[in-house]
Amino acid sequence: MKTYREQLIDCINELWEARVQVFGCLVSFAMETHLKEIDDAFEIGEVFEFQYAHFEDIDDTNIQRLIALCKEMDETISSLMNINGIDITEDKID
After folding, report:
1. Angstrom distance (rounded) from CA 39 to CA 75
2. Is the pTM of this model over 0.90?
3. Contact indicator for 12, 77 with CB cutoff of 8 Å
């Protein structure tokens, strides 16, 4: 049986994985619509690290809602870690 702390770490890890998925949806959606010209400039296998700032000026309610959701998830994860004294190096937390 897992301890409360172990369960909490598992929960945080799952929240992080969900947040990564939502951000991936945000990037894919924006690249197919509002950032199509940037998508066309990338070559297969090329890596680019997107930040919220790349999407915040896009005037699309759906994209703005996805950004807000990601930020809320970031805040929740950070809060859970701070309240419970969980360090980013603990277990699998990225």
Report:
1. 29
2. no
3. yes
Is the distance from CB of 5 to CB of 83 less than 8 angstroms? no
Q: Which two tokens stand for residue 93?
A: 């937390």
DSSP the chain: ---HHHHHHHHHHHHHHHHHHHHHHHHHHHHHTTTHHHHHHSPTT------GGGTTT---HHHHHHHHHHHHHHHHHHHHHHHTT--TTSTT--
CB atoms closer than 10 angstroms to residue 87: 8
Which residue, 4, 3, 9, 2, is CA-closest to 87? 9
pLDDT tens for each residue of the chain, 94 residues long: 999 999 999 999 999 999 999 999 999 999 888 888 877 787 888 888 999 999 999 999 999 999 999 999 999 999 999 999 998 887 665 5
**Contact in structure between 34 and 60 (CB atoms under 8 Å):** yes
